[in-house]
Every structure is written in C-alpha cells, then in structure tokens.
Amino acid sequence: MANLRELRARIKSVNSTKKITKAQELIATSRITKAQRRVADSQPYADEIENVIGRLASASSLDHPMLNEREGAQRVAVLVVTSDRGMCGGYNHNVLKKAAELRANLEEKGHEVVIYVTGRKGADYYDFRGVELAGTWEGFSQDPDYAATHDVRRHLIDGFTASSEGKAKYREGLRVAEGEAVQGFDQVHVVYTEFVSMLSQVPRAHQMLPIEPVFEEEEFKQGEDMLSNASDDLFADYEFEPDADTLLAELLPQYVSKTLFAVMLEAAASESAARRNAMKSATDNATELVKDLSRVANQARQAQITQEITEIVGGAGALDDSGESD
C-alpha cells in the first residue's frame, strides 16, 4: 500500500489541477455565450447581403469569375481553421483529420494543394511534420476580430482573382519574403468546425470559391383566368444603377469576405465549446480521482492505526508477562 504522506501529497496536487480545470471550464462557458451573440449579431447583415446578391443574380448574366468553375483548374487553396491554444479535447485533431481527407481527395484529382492555416496549433502540427505552408495567421482563434482577420480574408480573395496564372500581392502572414508577390489559385476551400450544440461540434470542408449558385424552381399556379395567378404574393421589380453585373462584381468579394469571417466566428464558438467540454471532463475525472485516493489514504490510515494499537497492546502484554516472571 502506498505511503500515507505520498497519498496526501498526490491528493493536494490533484485538487490544485482541479481548480485550474474548473476555472478554464467557467471561462470557456462565458466565451461560448459571447461567441454565439457575435454570430447572431452578424446574421442580419449576412441575410441582407444574400438577399441583395440574389436579386442582382436574377437580373445579371452570372458571368463572373467567382461564380464559374475554371477549366483546367490546377492550384487549390485550403484554409484550415485551428486554435491558438490546447486543452480543447479533439477539436484540432478532428479538423486536421478532415483537412487531410480533403487534401488527399484534391490531390487524387490531380490538383496542386496549397495550405493556409489560422491558429498556432495547426501551424505547429504541419511544421513538425515538414509540410510546407503558404501562410499562417494566429492570435485571434478564440475572439476573431474583423481587422485582425483582414489579411487572410483578402489574400484568399486576391489569390483567387489572380488565378493560378497570375500573382497576388504580399500580405502579412504569407511565408515568403516581405513584399514578394505570390502565385494565385483556382479554387478556395475552408476546413473548420461547425458549432451544432454545446455538446456537438462537427468538422466541415466547404468550397468557398468559386461560389456554387443555387437555382430554385418556382411553382406557378394559374388563377381563374389567363392574366392572373393563384398567388397573392407581390414581388418587387428592381432597376439597378449601375447595371446588375457591375454591382454584383463589387458585392461578391464583400460577400465572400463576410462568409469567411462568419466561418471564423463559428469556429471560435466551437473551440470554446470543445474546451468547456474537455475541462468539465477533466474536472469530473479529478473529482473521482480525489475520491479514490482519499479512500486509499483512509485505508492506509486505518491500517496504520490498527498496527499502532496492535503494537501498544503487544507491548503492554509483554510488560505484564515480564512483571509476572519477576
């Protein structure tokens, strides 16, 4: 049986760790609420710009590089969204595993994959394995800021606009000499973690560029005569100035930039939820470990007391025996 002093020292150590994990759990819980609120606050703008682009798309020719697949696409950019810190369970492992699956699938199709990473953990993962990274950004995984994420968002848009045959200008975070232009790409994919609930966060791989238009079929119901229909809904007929194609060309980069930022907000909420779950599990395990160690310590203490009593009784008996012999 372990020494009683060692058991007490270990119980003290586990209790100290438990305080840390409990504090981390409470901090992560508060950050989840903040992240969810930021996602909700950004939703009205996202809905409105989608509506505007939808109206523009219905009135335009849809002849824009961001809406059309390029023939003979060669270079593909993959942005992997990870965390800056650990202690978040399998959050980083799952998203990196999803990125590896996407990379293998793209390379099987003959594409050259260029990897970009946000988050220190993802950068360390690829650097340790000797994987070449085109760019890394860190410092905002838990609390994305629009200004802090500007370079990564703009580079992905500029790189796609330049295509694999052109060059995109230098931005902070790219792993090239300062001021050096970099080769563009023909597709942009993002691998991130979707926030489903407090207990469920699912890694997703999404093609960001080119945007895949969604065509919806509208059912027409004929009314009582040929000049009317059965629907009472009224739809506005818009006239655009300048023309719809020009407005669409200006708004599509903003739409993509907004979508990328929304992905980072979603990943931030997922990271906090994963950290909260991991820290809660660690706190619960520490509580159970303290109970087990306390039980063992009590047994050791009882065994020690029993031994001491036995020694006292044995000593007293020996003294009585020696007195009788005298």
UniProtKB/TrEMBL annotation:
GO molecular function (one): proton-transporting ATP synthase activity, rotational mechanism
UniProt xrefs under Gene3D superfamilies: 3.40.1380.10, ATP synthase, gamma subunit, helix hairpin domain
UniProt xrefs under Pfam families: ATP-synt
Membrane topology term: Peripheral membrane protein
Keywords: ATP synthesis, Cell membrane, CF(1), Hydrogen ion transport, Ion transport, Membrane, Transport
InterPro entries cross-referenced by the UniProt entry: ATP_synth_F1_ATPase_gsu, ATP_synth_F1_gsu, ATP_synth_F1_gsu_CS
Subcellular location as annotated: Cell membrane; Membrane
Record CDD domains: F1-ATPase_gamma
Keyword set includes Transport: yes
Main location: membrane
GO biological process, one term: proton motive force-driven plasma membrane ATP synthesis
GO cellular component: plasma membrane; proton-transporting ATP synthase complex
Cited function: Produces ATP from ADP in the presence of a proton gradient across the membrane. The gamma chain is believed to be important in regulating ATPase activity and the flow of protons through the CF(0) complex.
PANTHER family xref list: ATP SYNTHASE GAMMA CHAIN (PTHR11693), ATP SYNTHASE SUBUNIT GAMMA, MITOCHONDRIAL (PTHR11693:SF22)
Complexes and interactors: F-type ATPases have 2 components, CF(1) - the catalytic core - and CF(0) - the membrane proton channel. CF(1) has five subunits: alpha(3), beta(3), gamma(1), delta(1), epsilon(1). CF(0) has three main subunits: a, b and c.
Similarity section: Belongs to the ATPase gamma chain family.
Name the UniProt record assigns to this protein: ATP synthase gamma chain
Source organism of the structure: Corynebacterium lactis RW2-5
